[in-house]
Design a protein that fits this description.
By secondary structure, the chain is mainly β. It has helices spanning 120-126, 144-154, 176-180; strands spanning 2-5, 11-14, 19-22, 41-44, 62-65, 69-73, 76-84, 95-103, 106-110, 131-135, 158-162, 188-192, 194-196, 207-211.
Length: 213
Amino acid sequence: MRIRWHGHSCFEFFDAKNSVLIDPHDGKTIGIKPPISNAGIVLVSHDHFDHNALRIIKNEHATLCAQPGKCSIKGIEFEGFPSFHDDTEGSIRGTNTIYCFVMDGMRFCHCGDLGEIPSEEVLECLKGVDILFIPTGEVFTLPIPKVWELVKLIEPKVVVPMHYRVGGLTLPLKTLDDFLGDTPDDKILYVGNEVELTADELPEFSGIWVFDR
């Protein structure tokens, strides 16, 4: 299967039959290139303009918008877990949905704009996912120390930082370097814009994956 980064928190997952796009933005309203996608399944973690630009997908598609619970679409089982966009139970920025799903034998978790450490019940369900996509820009989401705390609690094979400041972005987020800090170079893998892998190959890629658009 393939995983492609469309910038910000927008990732697309491809297997032999389907493509799943998560948290589309329109590019121009945040200062970066817009996604180009014909995804058949689109997930939205929360209803904010930089994550819910469904209009960019021109073809027909199934959509899950901030929807906790289990759902099967085109043979893929999705599960949304309730969380908050801030650490005050949503009083500032509202709710957020963490999505988990399996494609090609690998379990993915996309945290959306997570602003708190999830409940013990949710953590138990997330523990041990293969690839964890987590916001690291700090300003509107988890503080960086809390990001690392959550990574330790979940223990994924791979961590993918997202929702951080890149060239042109108009949102006042922290940079990737702010998140990586003193992380050893041998724990970081720069994968480019797109990576292709199988479940058997995943152990060879453990650590932090950095996508580049």
